[in-house]
Design goal:
8 helices, Rossmann fold, 8 strands, alpha/beta, five-stranded parallel beta sheet, 16% strand
Length: 207
Amino acid sequence: MIIIFIGPPGSGKGTQAALVADKLKIAQLSTGEVLRKKTESSEGKKLQEMMAQGKLVPSETVNQLVLEALNNNKFDCILDGYPRNLEQVEFLAANYKDKITAIYFDIDQKLLTQRISGRFSCKKCAKIYNKYFNDTKIEGVCDYCKSNDFVFRGDDNEKAVIKRLEEYEKETRPVIEYYKALGSLKSIDASKEANKITEELLLLLKK
């Protein structure tokens, strides 16, 4: 079985995919992580530039990376961030025949913008913060290792965030309608606290 987490950037798909995969003892496949690893290779420079500008990576590239990962996985898994458009839906349907359950992470766009554009991490210990919701206790000092060296992702600036959300609405909304029409779509309020969302996801997946 494949469980698909669908939702805009910052909706918590990645966090919940890791938590739920651990609870259910199944694999997690994050397309964002797969793409970031690809950018570290010599041929990944163009992908890195696209992601920093908030643009979506071409479906042909994503499809092949996901198919390779799925073929290497022998167990049930959670797909985080894929399929993102109808082209990817059709590719998945044609190349992978397992049962699919899709879960939509429903969340307000203003909250999303703050979640994404406000996040940063400590370069030394990798602790993640958010200037709107979870800032450091002392400005400019990591709560854990006391470092003052922080990292902001290139695609987390407000301009790139708006671009990403626009692309999401255009490309991914039809995917939601597709799985809804098939009767395989479930929905969850992604504005709740993480532990509450995890509980609700586990209940949904038992039905």
